[in-house]
Amino acid sequence: MGNLAVTRKTTLLAPPAERSGTDRSAAGPAAGSPGLPTGDRAPRLQRQLPARPRLPAQEAHLAAAGDRPSSSPRTVAARILRRPETLTDLEQLQLKTVRTHCLELGALTWHVRSFAVMLTHGQGERLPDWLDAVRQDDLPSLHTLAAGIDRDRDAVIAGLTLPWNSGVVEGHVNRIKMLKRQVFGRAGFALLRKRVLPA
To answer: 157: closest CA among 191, 188, 119?
Structure first.
């Protein structure tokens, strides 16, 4: 009886592998495990996977894009808005290539530069012709702009033709708003009045 108690106590204190009397490492992975080694001995499965084949449509797209300039939309927009004479030969060539691959961008470039000429040279009388040309192209964004200009056509023509503008008034409004933001939540109307009037 005493030997049986000692044997039972020794068995309870022994490690799980010794308790079962079997070696778990030799028995293989547990049920539900993928059975793959882990740690430094784990194979690099990503290197063993074959390359994913490309579809014919992807190959055609990559082949067609091989001769296109790698310009971002922001870069293309900046080149369209700049004066043509300020662009380098490389920039002009890249913009020409983009316009060749996208006819909408070619039409957009022409309309933007035509409006810039009207704005800088005071040619407001050309505005009706410009609006008609915009409506003939499939450019929804410019159609929205043209509709807004057409609602106040007389004022826009005057702004493009006459030498006077409201720039000075807008500058004072901007200055007053800046002063208001500086004292917001820290002072009342009396301090704001003292800062606006002497300025």
So the answer is: 119
